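Section 5: illustrative case.
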């Protein structure tokens, strides 16, 4: 897949309110950052899949140095990890919790169900 084509596909998926994940058709490896070759096997046979929900893999709560408390989560989308801010309920925040993708002010965030 050419880089221009890949970036267009990423943009289309972001605009639909999902997270784009690239999957290698040769080895099945999944990753988030746009690349023209699989970082695991080197194949250029890639496809892009949109995900609307995932599972919290890790998180941190930042309460100092910023104007407001910020919660950063790493979400697992079938093996591919993506980092973004969490805007859901604090009492629902835990590793293993299911979250969904939301767009707010042109940015991607994660929230609880």
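Designed sequence:
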């Amino acid at each position: 897949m050419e880089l221009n084509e890949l970036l267009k596909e990423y943009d289309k998926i972001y605009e639909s309110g999902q997270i784009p994940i690239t999957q290698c058709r040769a080895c099945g490896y999944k990753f988030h950052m746009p690349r023209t070759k699989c970082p695991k096997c080197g194949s250029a046979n890639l496809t892009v899949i949109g995900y609307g929900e995932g599972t919290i893999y890790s998180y941190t709560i930042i309460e100092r140095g910023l104007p407001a408390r910020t919660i950063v989560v790493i979400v697992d989308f079938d093996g591919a990890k993506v980092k973004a801010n969490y805007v859901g309920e604090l009492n629902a925040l835990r590793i293993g919790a299911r979250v969904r993708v939301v767009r707010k002010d042109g940015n991607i965030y994660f929230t609880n169900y």
